[in-house]
Amino acid sequence: MSESECINANWSLIGFQDGVNGRPSSRLNEHNNTCSKHGIFPETQEYMIGYQDGIRNFCTPERGYEQGKAGRAQEIQCPDDLKVDFLNAYNHGYQYYLITQDIRKIESRIKKHNDRLSSISREIQRKEFSLERADDKGERAKLINEIRHLRDNQRRVENDKRRDERELSRKKSARYPYSTLVIY
Predict the structure, then answer these.
(1) What pTM value is reported for the model?
(2) Which residues lie closer than 8 Å to 1 by C-beta, 6 or more apart?
(3) Residue 181: its pLDDT value, please?
(4) Which end of the chain has fewer CB within 10 Å, C or N?
């Protein structure tokens, strides 16, 4: 805050804005540090009255769910009469967030499996092309063995991919109950 902002501050409004935006009440210390450099000190009582009004607007189940779903740390101390509903909703949203993180990791693995399968497929085609043109028995045997090894590897990657696809399906099903907030 500038000196002018500190002089003209509506501490009740600043407190309200900090509360409604989910900032901790300790933010008053930051305002104090900034304004004290200009010889001005926040009006703590006005700030806290505004903050309490703001935090009550913040500590709703909907906001708790949004915070959890976004994976934000829960650092706000809601008033006692709002705390349980806020935290329950936050935890509901946070479960959605955690499962979504797992889903992203699995989707990344599936993409890697697909990339690896494409690479193996191209390598098999290249070896088969060379096999068609090979005249030497030793070279043909070597290529046949390499193709067999590539096909074994291809089967392993396909099995890993199928396993991850099943896990992805399970995770998506597990996430569904957390996809919306139901308030009773």
Answers:
(1) 0.80
(2) 9, 31, 34, 35
(3) 82
(4) C
